[in-house]
Every structure is written in structure tokens, then in C-alpha cells.
Amino acid sequence: MKKIFIPSCFILRGYLLTAACCIAFYSQAQLGIQAGTTLTIESGTKMVLQGDLLSSVSVQGSGSIVMKGSGLQNINANGNTIPNLEIDNASNVLLTGSLKIGNNLLFTNGKLRIASADLIIISSSTITGNNSSRFVWTDGTGQLKKELTANISNYELPVGENSNYRPAYLTTSGSSFSTANFGVRLIAGADANKPPMMANYINAYWPVTNTGISGGIITVAGQYLDPSDITGTESNLAGYYFNGSNWSSSGETHNTATSQISAPVTNSSGELFAMNKFITVGIRAFLQGAYNNSTGTMSDALRSGTNVIPLSDPYRQTPYNSSFTHVSNPTTEAVAATVFNNQASVNDDIVDWVFIELRNTASPGNSVLQTRSALIQRDGDIVDIDGVSPVTFNNVSNGTYTIAIRHRNHLGLSTNPTTPQSLNETKSTAFTTNVVDLRTLTGSSIYGTSSGYTTSTHPTLGTVNLLWGGNANFNTNVRYTGLSNDKDYILVTTLANNPATVLTNVYSAADINMNKIVRYTGLTNDKDFLYITVLQSNTVTIRTQQLPN
Q1: 103 to each of 85, 404, 485, 507, how far by Cα in Å?
Q2: 335 located within any domain
Q3: Of 107, 252, 351, 445, which is the most buried if we count CB atoms within 10 A?
Q4: What tens digit of pLDDT does each residue of 259-294 get?
Q5: 3-state SS of the chain: helix, strand, coil percent to 5?
Q6: 248, 276, 304 - which closes a domain
Q7: Residue 471 located in a structural domain
Q8: What is the value of pTM for the model shown?
Q9: Which residue range forms the structural domain that includes residue 208?
């Protein structure tokens, strides 16, 4: 092949027609192609650039431009077309403006970084030579886009980042196309939209866009790196698509042999990710010890001022772990300190930790499938460790379940297994779907008899249910006298048998009115709350927990 060298900083202002006789034109510095100019590279001819390329027009002909520098090279095509582009630079090539490929993008050496620019492959164009070290590096908001005029099967979109190749594969069937393209990029790291406390997931995801493709089925697959991308257990992974509001695994596939997951694309933009099957549930309840019927909310005294609520799950720690045992939940729940800050809405301020049991529905519902520790807000919403999201249960499929709520100084309350709750993976951040509202459930929807919980009034909800308070020794009953009574636990165990002692700014089960103070006498003392409010001034009354057992 004959070589012709073009001077440094070559700027084309008129017409250049290359010969069609296997000539290679070499530019050792920047090549600029100005508006109003025609550059035609004939078949069999290569224009080899060792500097940058700046073009204000589309290149003509069927020859190739070869990026073959010794350092990072830049291409700014301003959205114009290069018929054939070859990447042959170990130091990589960077797009600083969008580019269309009219015939073929060939990888010989190095990567094409697209940053915030789009790389568009027209419908008849191909990408060749890509492999685990030669691919489109999506290191910004730019996408690799494939234009479409007909259905396509398992088309490889060679995206990755740094030295990590994680291609996507596109399949459409039964679709129609109108100025259509499908875009994808790869982001390293776990998807920020995944539910909190997800146990198994990959540290990569693929944001996608769908323009002008309608009808039929659009499926995108992603190939992750095994084992470096995997958190948890690979066999638990499933493909998920996030549509901007909800996750769905409907129609997903997962193949551990090929390290690929897939899911249908159901709207114009979303994200492909891999994580374990899960369900979410927006649960609501009221705790008697903190409830105020005039406001219809609970007190958040434990976190206001000086927060005393622990940042990690108290039910795994002494003394509560003697009565609360986690099932299928080995990872300790922990929250950021900011979760206990004042929230935009005072009703969203955190009251305390609660303990949730996901149970079976077969009568009597006594099989605990999984437990979670979560946070309860002033309005009764029970949220995950981010203080916002509904509670996630891992490795559980859509179905019907029984939900029980327990608390460190209240008696538990459960839905009735004979009235199963239908739960799935639909996100319920606004607590408008998948809601199990123990505050307002009535009759047979609640397990046990009406003596298993108490009621109060609410400004807008009318009569509401409350978990019985007063369970200072966190067992299965509340009592004033006899063995293991709660009055003695307050006085003897907590206050060292000194009724004059007052403990302030404490996180204690003996603080049954949840005001951050344990006291036996005086105003707002815990003994009187137990006697008057919980036991209705009757020393022989016993409140007994009613859970499916």
C-alpha cells in the first residue's frame, strides 16, 4: 500500500478525492474538515490519523478513517457520518461530539470512549473486531445507539468501562419502526434504584432508551463479569427492568453459564439490572406507647433533640435478641445518621425500629419465612433503612403472605392467615399500592380476637388499631402483678429498685410511653402509663400477645 503523508494541522476547505488504488494517507496531527467541504475516501483507501479529527460535514465514499495515534485522540464529528472508522490506538479515542457510522466501525486496538456524545450505528452498519479489550467505553451520559428499520435478534452492543467488557444484546420481535433507534450505556456499580437491603445483585447496570419502536417485544440482555461483579450468590440473580417507577422481573431470563441476564423493555427509557427476586410491602401500624389521638400521629421523642435510637438493628443486640430471632436475614440493618434528622414532612420523622415477620398463609400461619427490622414513621408508615422505601424481603416470589409486626416494648399484631395479603415487587414508595394497613384492618382480617390489640380515635381515619404498649420486659404479655410483671421490670431491673431514680435520654424497653425517660413516680411516669392507659386501672388485667403460633 502506498503511503502519502499529509502535513500537520491539515485543514480541508475545498474538495479532496482520494485515489481508489490502496493508498494510505497519513496525517500526523489534527485534521479539520470545514463546512462546505467534501472529503471523499474511495474504496480501498485509508486515511490514517495520528492526531485529532474535527469535521463539520459527513465524509463521503467507502474508504476508511483510521485513528492510529500514540496518545489519546479526539473525534468531533458534530453529529455527522463517517462511513468506515477504524480504532487502532492503545491509548484510546475520545468522542467530543456525536458521530454516525455509515458502514462499519472496526476495532483493531484500544477503545472508543464516548463520554457525553452519542455514537450512532445506522441500520445497515456493523461493528466488528470488538472483544474484551476493544469496545465502546461509555464513561458519561452518551449512548451507543443502533438505528432500526426491521426486527433484530441478539444484536451485540459492545459496551463496557475501563478494562471491563459488559456488552448488551438487543432482540426485537413483532415490532414496527419509525425513525427508530435503541440506545444503551454501561454504568459500573450497583443500580442506585435497587431496593435497600438487597442481598444479591451485580455491580453493573445498563440504562437504555427506546425511540420509535412500537408494539411487539423488545428484550435487552446484559453480560456481567463473574465473579467480580457479583455481590451475594449468583444463582439467586434474576433479570429486572426498572421503568422509572417500578421494578419488574416479568419475562426475565438468567443464565449463569453465560453470565447473562435479560428483561423486556416496556417503555421509552429504563434500566436493566440483575438482583434476587423480592417483594416489597408498605406496612402501616400504630404503637400505643407513642400514639397521640388528637394529632393522629406518634411521638418522635426518641430521635428529637438528642437522638437515642441506635443506628443499627437493636433486635440483634442485648437485651432484645433473647426475644427476637431473625430468620433468613443474615445482614444487619444499619442506617445513616441523617435518617433520624427532621424530614420535609413531620409525619415522616422516625419513631423507632420495629420487627417484621413474613409468614405463610396456610392456617395457622405459624411458619416465619423471613424477618426484617425496619423503621416506623410518625404517621405509621414502616419504611426500610433509607427512611423512605417500602420494606424489601429477599429471595421471595410474588404471592400471598401473612404479615406480623412486633416491637421491643409492645405486643405484636398480625394479619389473619385466612385473609392473605397479596404482595409483589411493585414499588410502593408513596404507600398507595401493596399496603398492609394494620391501623385500619377490621374483624377477621386481623389475627386473633379484639383483645389482642387496642383501639383509639384518629382525626380522619375514625377508629384505629394500636399495638398494646407496656411490655417493658419484652415477653408475650403485659401485666402489673405476678411473675415476670412489667411494673417490677421498670422498678427493680431498670431503676435498681429505687423509685426516685429517673433515667433521661435513654433507649430502654422500660420507657413504655416512649418519651426518652424512664421514671416510676411523678408526671408522665411509666408505671402509671402501664396501670392506667394499658391495663385500664386494673391490677389483675393481663394483655396477651396474639400471633399465629
Answers
A1: 9, 61, 82, 69
A2: yes
A3: 351
A4: 999 999 999 999 999 999 999 999 999 999 999 999
A5: 10, 45, 50
A6: 276
A7: no
A8: 0.91
A9: 144-276
